[in-house]
Design brief:
The chain has helices at 35-49, 74-84, 97-104, 128-135, 169-182, 198-208, 219-228, 243-255, 295-306, 327-339, 348-357, 371-377, 383-386; strands at 15-19, 26-27, 30-31, 53-57, 88-90, 111-113, 140-143, 165-167, 189-193, 214-217, 259-261, 265-269, 277-280, 289-293, 310-314, 342-346, 365-366. It is elongated and about 65 Å long. Helix 9 runs parallel beside helix 10. It contains 13 helices and 17 strands. The chain has 2 domains: 15-172, Rossmann fold, CATH 3.40.50; 184-378, 3-Layer(aba) Sandwich (Rossmann fold). Strands 5-6-4-1-7-8 form a 6-stranded parallel sheet, sandwiched between helices. A 6-stranded parallel sheet has the order 11-10-9-15-16-17, with helices on both faces. It is α/β, with parallel strands linked by helices. Bound molecules: adenosine-5'-diphosphate and magnesium ion. Adenosine-5'-diphosphate binds next to helix 7, strand 14 and helix 11.
């Protein structure tokens, strides 16, 4: 896949509408993690350095098409100003009078951030009218919001029909790293999947079976498979509706000679605050729940990871937010970091876990997209990317 990049594009004196993914965690008005803002800086600096002015578009949370001050981008404007070391103008609407006036007044090198694009009901509907209004704020369109690329929304898809459209540097880096996973990866290729969103992710495993050599499962994902094998899982997080899917996945893995690895032991407790104990994965007592993979599982997973040449990891192995249940995820992080394999990690919590471990710089690529990275490696077409593809 080849994208229309910014190489050689003359942006001097132009107003560029840049779709960024500033959907960062905010608590009581304080940004908890600014990774996604930082990830957009190379594109923004490059455009500003070449004499453009910028109209930035982002969503934050799910305000569902209504103005909700709780989801204002105001804290983001402040943080971005600090990072770029320049004042950032914040419009108090998306495509209203304020946004239009402030966009029109921009001089070269200046930056305007529009209010949360999801305050507009047309955004998630990919409304052509909203797309035209957004497009009218600039001369060019750049999409750097990989994390939103799996959505066909007005600011990620429809807008590209109304302006010359290009991929930003982050978008290019994401597509290049994830593309390396889907075209001729070095083998053995290992998928590591965990986390809590079983229903969202179980379909991924099925599709991935045709591409990988090993799938290892941990976290909440593993519990549903243990249940499907008829094991006692106590009070563990499971999605009973997906037992049938889990059985099908295990059968297909078997037919395709893909090694599907489940935990053999787990760290369990009676509730997250209870005393933790290591128990065999086939005998989790009633009232107890598995909150992490156990040391034997971590060691056997680590051995397989050591021999891998390509690794994709989405979803922590346990409730890593709590020290009592973080060891499995940490052990896997260490194994991936030491493997020397081409490694890609995606998913909001998975990325926090690897940042927490201090091993992030040993990972080949840390994706800013959770859902988007999963859809990409499933081989699906992402609407926010296909509109940026160079026609050959
Ligand atoms: P990501 O954000 O990387 O896509 P998910 O959102 O699917 O990952 O899952 C992350 C969450 O899963 C974490 O908050 C973690 O505490 C939780 N989790 C992991 N293992 C378990 C488990 N065994 N039981 C309950 N929750 C778990
Ligand atoms: Mg998550």
């Amino acid at each position: 896949m080849s994208l229309r990049t910014l190489d050689g594009v003359d942006v001097s004196g132009k107003r560029v509408v840049v779709r960024v993914d500033f959907n960062v965690p905010i608590q009581d008005g304080v940004i908890q993690d600014d990774t996604r803002i930082r990830a957009a800086l190379p594109t923004l600096r490059r455009l500003l350095g070449r004499g453009a002015s910028l109209v930035l578009v982002s969503h934050l949370g799910r305000p569902k098409g209504k103005v909700d001050p709780k989801y204002s981008l105001a804290p983001i404007a402040v943080r971005l100003g600090e990072l770029l070391d320049a004042p950032i103008e914040l419009a108090n609407d998306v495509v209203g009078n304020d946004a239009r006036a402030k966009a029109a007044a921009l001089a070269a090198g200046e930056v305007l951030l529009l209010e949360n694009v999801r305050f507009e009901p047309g955004e998630e509907k990919n409304d052509p009218e909203l797309a035209v209004q957004l497009a009218s704020l600039g001369d060019l369109y750049v999409n750097d919001a990989f994390g939103a690329a799996h959505r066909a929304h007005a600011s990620t898809a429809a807008i590209a029909s109304h302006l010359p459209a290009y991929a930003g540097d982050l978008m290019v880096a994401e597509v290049s790293a994830l593309g390396a996973l889907t075209s001729n990866p070095d083998r053995p290729f290992v998928d590591i999947l965990g986390g809590a969103k079983v229903s969202d992710k179980i379909g991924v495993i099925e599709i991935r079976l045709s591409r990988v050599d090993v799938v290892m499962l941990g976290g909440g994902m593993a519990n549903t498979f243990l249940l499907a094998q008829g094991k006692a899982v106590g009070d563990s997080l499971v999605e009973a509706d997906f037992v049938e899917t889990a059985n099908r996945v295990m059968q297909q893995a078997n037919e395709r000679s893909v090694e599907l690895l489940l935990p053999i032991d787990v760290i369990a407790a009676q509730g997250m605050d209870g005393q933790a104990a290591t128990v065999d994965a086939d005998g989790i007592p009633d009232d107890w729940a598995a909150f992490d993979i156990g040391p034997k599982s971590a060691a056997s997973f680590a051995k397989v990871i050591a021999g891998a040449k390509t690794i994709f990891w989405n979803g922590p192995m346990g409730v890593f937010e709590r020290p009592a249940f973080a060891n499995g995820t940490l052990a896997i992080a260490r194994a991936v970091a030491a493997s020397g394999a081409f490694s890609v990690i995606g998913g909001g919590d998975s990325v926090s876990a690897i940042e927490q471990s201090g091993l992030a710089d040993k990972i080949s690529h840390i994706s800013t997209g959770g859902g988007a990275s999963l859809e990409f490696i499933e081989g699906r077409e992402l609407p926010g990317i296909s509109v940026l593809e160079a026609k050959s």
